[in-house]
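Incident review: delayed structure delivery

Summary: a single-chain prediction request sat in the queue longer than the usual turnaround. Root cause was a stuck worker, restarted by the on-call engineer. No data loss occurred. The affected request and its eventual output are reproduced below so the record is complete for anyone auditing the incident later.

Affected input:
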Amino acid sequence: MAVNPISDYSELIDDEIRAFIEQTNAHYPPDAVRLSIAAQRAVYDQMCAAFRRDYPTGVSAQDSVLTGPHAVPMRTYTPATPSAKAHILYYHGGGFVVGGLDSHDEVCADLCARTGLSLSAVDYRLAPEHTHPAAFEDALAAYQHWQQASDAPLILAGDSAGATLAAAVAHAVRGQTPYPLGQVLIYPALGGDNTRGSYVTHAAAPLLSTQDVAFYQATVAGGAATAQDPRINPLADSDFSGLPPTTIITAQCDPLSDDGRDYRDGLLAAGVAAEWVNEAGLVHGYLRARHSSARAAASFERIVAALKRYANGA
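Output delivered after worker restart:
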């Protein structure tokens, strides 16, 4: 049966999310992928800065650089009363092309405060200057560093392209000890079939279209064949066994939403504990709306609850 794209989101999206979309588009127009890479980064950073708030009381942050074959900047957030139960390793979104430590600064600070866990954000190399597998190599290097440097076990987390990296790292280190307590993937891009399902139904979704996804995929691939490479498309892995307990949270109005469902199904079929929540009426990038949208705030609480649950060994 043919799947028709949704052209009118008025019934799915409420007034709060509509206002968030309008505020975002005021800085970051829908056709921004046509701009130069430098211009895309500038408008993305400007847009993120417009949503920035002060750190929650008691949260502090310190920057460092992981040295090695490639320098990997990181920012570590510490709550007023840190828990030794776990340490969160967080990878930011941005399609592997935009974003960095500042773009997701207040998101990470809020996660640190709400969970009571220390958190390290990873500033991996971006495309097109550094194509695949550069971002994955940095993500893995950061994981290996914190596995050795932290007494607390790790939880992998990220949004969008960052969620891709979190999952890719989990697949890459499978069988090693110690192993991540869990992973929390927020509207991840996992390499689903972009000719069916949500990629078609939500091809023209607000803030991220299927055409945008294709642009980012092509940019990070840099001409290489990556469709079957689980380091960039975790759904391409032939084995889902032995992976950590996983929470996948997607937005209903997002071409990537079916990736979350399909990844959950692959994990469950392999005997891995997994849950998928497809947030009704939300759009890609809604983390920035958590202070202005009741739906986004409720989803943020689910993200926090999942991180706490894994920290407690559940």
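Verification: Residues 16-311 form a domain with the Rossmann fold fold (CATH 3.40.50.1820).
Action items: add queue-age alerting; document worker restart procedure.
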